Structure formats: structure tokens, C-alpha cells
Amino acid sequence: MSFYSFEGLIPVVHPGAYVHPSAVLIGDVIVGDGVYIGPHASLRGDYGRLILEDGSNLQDSCIMHGYCDRDTIVHSCGHIGHGAILHGCIIGRDALVGMNSVIMDGAIIGEESIVGAMSFVKAGFIGTRRQLLMGIPAKYVRDVSDDELYWKRLNTLEYQDLVSRSQLSLREVTPLEQMEPNRPRLKGTTEVKPKGEMI
Prior knowledge:
By secondary structure, this protein is mostly beta strands. It is 12% helix and 31% strand. The protein contains one helix and 19 strands. Strands 1, 2, 4, 6, 8, 9, 11, 12, 14, 15 and 17 form an eleven-stranded parallel β-sheet that branches. It has an eight-stranded mixed β-sheet with strand order 3-5-7-10-13-16-18-19. The longest helix has 24 residues, at 146-169. The chain is globular. Pfam families: Hexapep. It comes from Limnobaculum eriocheiris.
């Protein structure tokens, strides 16, 4: 695991969280219960404090960095897609930030909102509850539908479940030279299926 103190501040990780061994946490980072942090994520708390509240996730290759005297926060059940960058911003409870999106300093994404993939949210943007934001720069498109929020929550639940699955089974190994006969397939753990379409 790559954990580093910075000027005396040591990352804090709840024992109920899962941090992939390739992720890097530096300095003033606070990770709550049930949080999933994916491979190659970088959380560099050498300016402001970085906080991932209970049940949130920060997926593969995400970057989280702060600004002096400002907390960067992903509130509970926040869902941060692969490759996203969060810089000095606040992500509301139960919100989703799509893959490869960038959220800049002072921006606030409202609770239950969705930022579409590859969107750019400008510094100082102040969102409200349940907004669909898309584009470069990101703009309000419409309200998030019940089906979209259901889909988002289902995927967040799957990442929360992935915490315990990873704690129990993820191990560094030597790869096989060929596929074994009757190789099993992974099965999802959530039986319900989303009613809405993915954004």
C-alpha cells in the first residue's frame, strides 16, 4: 500500500474501506467506512484536506487534490467514475461524476446530481439537487430522472459490495499461461437490474 505522511499528517482509512495497493494516499486524507478506492487513484492531501465519506467510491486512475484552506469532499454514496479529476470541489451526497470528467476549484455538485462523462465543471460552479450536467463547460441539461437515480444507486451499491469482495479475494498472483477448461465467470452480487438507461 502506498500511504505517505506529509508534514506530520498521516492518511486516515477506516478499517471497513478498501484501498487498492496501487493507489497513493498522501497527507491529509480521510477515508470513511465502506469506501472503495480503485487501482492507480491518487489522493494528494498536501494542500487542503481530502475527504471520502461513508459508502463513496473513487475509481481507477482518479485524481483528487485540494487547494489551500479548502476541503475537497465526496459526500456519502458519491460515485466517481474512472479517470475523473476532483480539484478543490464538493460532490454532494449520492451524486455521480462520469468518467474522465473534471470538477474544478470551488465547484459544488448538488446531491443526487449526475455529471456526464467527459464533462468540465468550471471553478466556482454552484449546483443544486438532482441536476444532469453535461458538456465543456458543463451546463444544466435537465433534472435527473427517477430511473437514472435508480441506476446510479444500483451501481454505487455494487461498489460498496466490491469493498468486501476485494478484501476477501483480491491477491497478487502470477498469471496463467493459458485459460483453464470451463473457466468460471464472475457473477454480480446485486439481483435487481436498473430500470433506466446509462448516461
